[in-house]
Write a structure and sequence with these properties.
Nuclear Transport Factor 2, Chain: A, six-stranded mixed β-sheet, 4 helices, globular
Length: 125
């Protein structure tokens, strides 16, 4: 998995460049967005990602390589509406290409008021 450019991948996700982004995938790859219960082919993933409204920027926070899986945590910011998300992604790479990608996206937000009222958590950043 050392031959997979995770930073380049996320750069092209943020740029919403379907031609460059498609080069990271095996044509038969499967992409899963678990939180919304969706499964995509490469072509449908490219449409979902590249036609998503807004201007985006991504920063890879952490990468872990396991024997069969590459994991990344990436912060994604939408630059016009000022929205931010974390994407936790699990990649299966074969011959330098993604064959399977499982992603979990979440909004970056404050703790809910009920938990703030308990005064139990501390800010991470």
């Amino acid at each position: 998995m050392n031959d997979f450019d995770i930073n380049g991948f996320w750069k092209h996700v943020a740029l919403q460049d379907p031609q460059q982004l498609s080069a990271y995938f095996n044509p038969d790859a499967t992409i899963l967005w678990e939180a919304t219960n969706e499964s995509f082919t490469v072509a449908s993933y490219l449409r979902a990602n590249c036609e998503y409204p807004g201007r985006w920027q991504g920063t890879v926070i952490e990468v872990k390589a396991c024997p069969d899986t590459l994991m990344s945590i990436t912060k994604i910011d939408e630059l016009e509406m000022k929205l931010s998300f974390y994407a936790v992604s699990f990649f299966t790479i074969k011959d330098g290409l993604i064959t399977h990608l499982r992603e979990y996206w979440c909004d970056i937000t404050e703790a809910p008021q009920w938990r703030q009222n308990l005064r139990i958590g501390k800010a991470i950043r």
